[in-house]
Specification:
The chain has 268 residues and is α/β, with parallel strands linked by helices. Helix content is 35%, strand content 18%. It is built from eight helices and nine strands. It has a seven-stranded mixed β-sheet, sandwiched between helices. A two-stranded antiparallel sheet has the order 4-5. Helix 7 links the parallel strand 8 (202-208) and strand 9 (234-240). Helix 3 (94-116) packs across helix 4 (132-143) and helix 5 (161-170) packs parallel to helix 7. The longest helix is centred in the middle third of the chain and has 23 residues, at 94-116. The chain is globular and about 45 Å long.
Length: 268
């Protein structure tokens, strides 16, 4: 299905050297693409470099979510999908369907254009998301037709986790996973048909134990869903004692740099 056309303009940071690779980075609830870009590039690794400086061949795409009505806050806000509870994301899951469908379709269209128009190999594209952006991006990874170069999930969780695990454990078949996305989220015509598409995609997940927005236990559940099912994504999980709902200082940024350089798009 075609994605909605009412998403805000993409915020794009162009590479400072020849373009070899692309990172698509999804913000959390209540934020937007430009704001997330500013925050992400404020912090530095132990080498005193920002992520953009570490990867001068990389193009950074920061999409912004639509404004949606929040059932909990009873007002419109920037969010990829509505959610009733972060204590138990399974509560009133039906509220998440429309936003997830629209947002995943939108992210898949960004990836398609980057591959088909921008001529970037899928193996040189990485999806990154924080919080609700991570929750959206993980489904874009699983539902997409391309095997991407990597996935980075920061302080996130997995919507419809139990259903995904049940599908993956019952039958490691791309058509079955596609049927889940079609039946549950209404994502038709966008899902992969080959179960091996993402079999070797490396994923870095990390969470801080003192996160007071998304409990670290939800991060454990995301980790276990990817590691212990037949989705066969190659997961690296890092947990930090402190750092809150963010990347925990130079150590955290060093972890991202090492992952990108040694497991994802090594050539960049």
């Amino acid at each position: 299905m075609a994605p909605p056309s009412d998403f805000p303009a993409l915020h794009i940071i162009q590479p400072t050297q020849t373009h070899h690779c692309t990172i698509i980075a999804l913000h959390g609830r209540g934020s937007n693409g430009p704001e997330f870009a500013e925050e992400l590039f404020e912090d530095k690794s132990s080498s005193d470099l920002t992520l953009a400086e570490h990867f001068p061949h990389c193009k950074w795409i920061f999409p912004s979510s639509q404004k949606r009505y929040s059932t909990v806050f009873q007002e419109e806000m920037d969010e990829w999908f509505d959610i009733y509870s972060l204590t138990d994301p399974n509560t009133q899951e039906e509220l998440q369907v429309e936003g997830l469908r629209d947002s995943i379709s939108y992210i898949l269209e960004i990836i398609r254009k980057e591959v088909e128009v921008g001529l970037v190999p899928p193996s040189n594209i990485v999806l990154l998301g924080i919080s609700q952006g991570c929750a959206t991006a993980i489904h874009a990874l699983l539902a997409g037709r391309y095997r991407l170069g990597g996935f980075i999930g920061i302080a996130g969780w997995m919507p419809f986790r139990k259903q995904i695990v049940d599908v993956a454990q019952s039958c490691n078949d791309g058509a079955t996973l596609s049927k889940f996305y079609a039946d549950t989220l209404g994502l038709t015509g966008a899902c992969r048909s080959n179960a091996q598409d993402n079999v070797t995609t490396p994923a870095l997940l990390f969470h801080c134990a003192d996160d007071d927005v998304v409990d670290v236990e939800l991060g454990h559940q995301l980790r276990d869903a990817l590691m212990n099912s037949d989705l066969d994504i190659n997961v690296t999980y890092k947990e930090f004692v402190s750092g809150g709902h963010w990347i925990p200082g130079p150590d955290g940024f060093d972890t991202v740099v090492d992952f990108l350089r040694n497991q994802a798009f090594i050539s960049c």
